[in-house]
Amino acid sequence: MTRQTALIERLREGNARYLNAAVPCGDVSPALREQTAREGQTPYAIVICCSDSRVMPESIFSAGIGELFVIRVAGNVLDRHQLGSIEYAAAHLGCKLILVLGHTGCGAVGAALSGGGEGYIQYITDEILLAVGEERDPGRACILNVEHAVETIRRAFADHPEIPSAALDIRGAVYDIRSGEVAWL
Ligand SMILES: [Zn+2]
Question: Are strands 45-49 and 68-72 parallel, antiparallel or unpaired?
Fold first, then answer.
């Protein structure tokens, strides 16, 4: 098993534990808090997901302190700030597995499909509309939005001197807010 495959397996296994757990089961102990404060962080995956309060990446993957480098923004859209966060984690923390995690029942995707938002929200819905084109089915649109983000990351790091896209494992998945399951694309 390659390292990247093993890391994906770790996410899958964490999600399986989450589905059967009464309480979140990542290690958030004072001992680990102390250790990571002292030794620094070595997260094994970067997760880009929505800010939706029902989507809790550390819980979903049974991850503890220092395991996931999480970037949350409504509609899991990407702009330069998010790409900068990804670049930091990939180039400086050695985190080569990147997961874009969309979710069912996403309000941002719904707002985009209903014509888009106003004010600052429009920046988010415009990006989602760019991703989904003419698609108006929420489930399909959610997948297209994830795939668009994956492609954006791939393009952004295509010629990066330290972390070219070829050295990264960039994946997409959709989290089901009812069942708790993660469907990998
Ligand atoms: Zn959402």
Answer: parallel
